[in-house]
Amino acid sequence: MLLDFRTKNFKSFQDELVFSMTPAPKQKGLDYSLLKEKIGAKEYKGLSSAVIYGPNASGKTNIIGAMDILKQIMLRGHIRNEDKKSRSNPAAGALELIPNKADKQKTPVDFAIKFTDSGFLFDYRLSLDLGSFLEEDYDRKVLTEALYINEKMIFSRNPSLELGDTNIIRKYAINGFEENEKSVRNLAKKNLIDDELFLMNGFKAMFSSKLVGIITDWLENRFMVFCRADALQARPSTSKKDTLYVNTTVNDAARIFGINSNGLGFLSSDEDSEPKLYSILDKKGIVQADTFESYGTIRFVNMFPVVIDALLSGGTLVIDEFDASLHPMAIMSIVNIFHNDDLNKKNAQLIFNTHNPIFLNSNLFRRDEIKFVERDEETFRSTHYSLSDFGTSGEKAVRMGGDYMKNYFVSQYGAIKDVDFTSVFEQLLESRGEL
């Protein structure tokens, strides 16, 4: 489970962003929907969900984008541009899009992520010299890099390499490591490459491919980050020509969602083509869903299998505008499933941003699960904070059972903007002589 994510000098977040999925201290009466995992003698607690609020262009999507970029950098093991561009998050492949565009000092871009998996607590930190915004040909460098496992330093690069106590990795070390540990340490220190991660290259090859495998497996299969709502497209993993794939669980959920007259399935007309979603019209045959179903229906069918995967695998599901085109009652039900200890047995988490105030509800989310992002009108810098950062007394108090939605709209918590297009239309009509 994700415990903590941090970044600095990333797009609009020039100051450090700390996105915490650990329970805030001193939150009395909020012991529900907490995830717990024991590692050694210590128990770690995590939030099962988080919802992010803020006006348009405040930086909400940048939080999700930063998570996705760190994931992609770690998986490919270097900070060179990727030839394959991502439509949902171009900065994941073109790293010159990452630095804050107002920064002229080539300030480093920092990332850090802390998560648990397979009985380990992983804490990985990375600081990158990416140059300035849009400086495509800059000679990029890894400035610092560190890995902590179960709160013990495994290695630290700053810029030379320091290796910690390797006792924690001996059980998972590569063959021959113990007999050659001294020479392996010396070799590792002499073979750092400026634009490559030591974790995914030297450490993996010379120390423990098994531990790196646990990290990459979590990143690939359980850190499920979607930077755009329309990037969610569920497809069967295999396909055969003229074979209709029907997912019974998804169809059952779709009927509860409101699709009662027909079923849904995936069909490939060619063994090499990508299966397409079809509506099954009983004896009348099938028709492509995008010509028959509403956009909300298609969004639901593409989204629900990902929710299932997260719950069954204990994944951390992070989605931009998760509720786009979906009824809020459907989203509330899914949130409640993540909060249900009897159903969420593997510590799955759901993180999403939204503009819908209906989720500002003390009966649905804990105070530390409600996050805000606002952007300064003069500096254009984004800041992030949680509802739990407010006190429980005073003018801006946040009390148990309070009317969060009402207070948000009177700007008690910030992260809201007055929007009035009247002047635009007045000027337009005046220019036409109609006012």
From TrEMBL:
Pfam families: AAA_21. It comes from the Bacteria. Gene3D superfamilies: P-loop containing nucleotide triphosphate hydrolases (3.40.50.300). Signal peptide: none annotated. Residues 50-133, 282-360 form the ATPase AAA-type core domain. This is Abortive phage infection protein. It comes from Paenibacillus borealis.
